[in-house]
Design a protein that fits this description.
The chain contains 3 helices and 5 strands. By secondary structure, it is α+β, with helices and mostly antiparallel strands. The protein has one domain. Strands 3-2-1-4-5 form a 5-stranded antiparallel sheet. A hairpin with a 2-residue loop joins β1 and β2. The radius of gyration is 18 Å and the shape is globular. The two termini are about 30 Å apart.
Length: about 170
């Protein structure tokens, strides 16, 4: 008697395309990941969106970056747009604490990318939150729901080096 098992695609709800209020809920150090340009240190910035799925859960979307503040890096460009200002030379020299982003509001532009199997929601750009009556960005306008558990606090968490080994092994298979 045959015991047949098939891959089951699970449909995850994805947020709508467009401009959505968000709050940073995590910054994940992924470690070194193999890329076409050699191994690169990677991070992911996770956002909880103001938009909810049909069950009332807020969507969570992340954007992966090379861990670099080089003037041409995507991370630096997004951080400067989000913060509404360029980095000062002293900030770049001293370094920027990515953990300081957690709890900070933003507006994200979500686009959909369709493949043969499913549709993905991608963060195309990160902008400062709406301005209040005083003309200043409302940095705490969108608050975390409390449902998101940071990656480092999850059961089975792997340190970046260990995680990178797992990811790199899977990509070679």
């Amino acid at each position: 008697m045959a015991l047949v098992i098939k891959e089951q695609d699970k449909d995850y709800p994805i947020p709508p395309e467009g401009i959505i209020d968000a709050v940073c809920v995590d910054v994940v150090d992924i470690g070194k990941v193999e890329t076409p340009w050699g191994p690169k240190e990677k991070i992911t910035i996770m956002f909880e969106l103001g938009a909810q799925d049909t069950e009332g859960n807020r969507y969570v979307v992340g954007k992966r970056y090379t861990k670099s503040l080089n003037e041409k890096s995507n991370l630096r460009g997004d951080l400067e747009r989000w913060r509404s200002r360029k980095f000062k030379p002293q900030e770049l020299k001293n370094g920027f604490d990515l953990e300081s982003l957690i709890g900070v509001s933003a507006i994200v532009y979500i686009s959909h990318n369709e493949t043969d199997k499913r549709t993905y929601a991608n963060i195309e750009s990160i902008l400062p939150p709406q301005r209040g009556p005083d003309g200043q960005p409302q940095w705490l306008a969108t608050r975390p729901s409390g449902d998101y558990v940071r990656v480092t606090q999850r059961e089975g968490y792997q340190e970046p080096e260990e995680y990178a080994e797992t990811v790199n092994a899977e990509s070679e298979a």
